[in-house]
Design brief:
Blueprint: E1 100-109, E2 112-115, E3 117-124, E4 127-131, E5 134-136, H1 143-155, E6 163-170, E7 173-179, E8 196-200, H2 204-212, E9 219-222, E10 225-229, H3 231-242
Parallel strand pairs: 1-7, 4-10
Antiparallel strand pairs: 1-2, 1-5, 3-4, 3-8, 6-7, 9-10
Amino acid sequence: MDKKTHISTRRTSKRGTPKRRIQKRRMSKRRTPQRRTSKRGTPRRGTPKRHIQKRRMSKRRTPQRRTSKRGTPKRRIRKRRMSKRRTPKRVLTGGQPIKNASVFVITKQGGNYRVIMVIENGKQHGFYKINTPGGALNRGETPFTGGKREWNEEVGTQMPTIHDLNNFDLGNSRIFYGFTNDHVRYNKNKVLHNETVGLIFPKLHDLMKAVNRHITPSTIITGGQTYVLRKCFYKSFKYMMDNHLLDKYL
């Protein structure tokens, strides 16, 4: 009995060579379980929640600068706040508040009326400047209290007793004037910030001559030395002369 021969049934190509079985590679499934979502797309309850945090874009920290028509950025200009007024508002006849106070004191020495003045620590045209004690007021300070304080700071001693005390307003300053019989001394050790370097007692008659020259800066010669009158003293002294406030001392 003839043996049955096995004939291969492999499909061959047109050339006669058997076709090679090519197995398709299956793609692996997603390792992480996909979240079941509802119709709206939101995850259902009961499913393992996976917190997926979306990265939010940070807002612009620096404000966007406005640009002009030409495209160049505009410069931010901050408005400067004005500080509060340090001195109390005191309305005068001219409508200006009092900011300064000075003390004009007359004394009698050697049979002549003299004015008590301080020599300031500074020169003008090579000469020392002289003025009556005075200065700016502090906050909440009255003009007379401020004038008394300025006397103590510039002379170094307490203000003497002043008789026939009067005052007048010139601009934003209040000038107190009167007469004293006390002996005034200068204490350099108690002078604040070395504002002054000494005291001087010019004659009232010599001061009138210097002011009547109408020359600025006005100078006066006392004790063989030349001094320059401060402009504020020149104005106040001329006001007293024009209004005849010094006639009883002539």
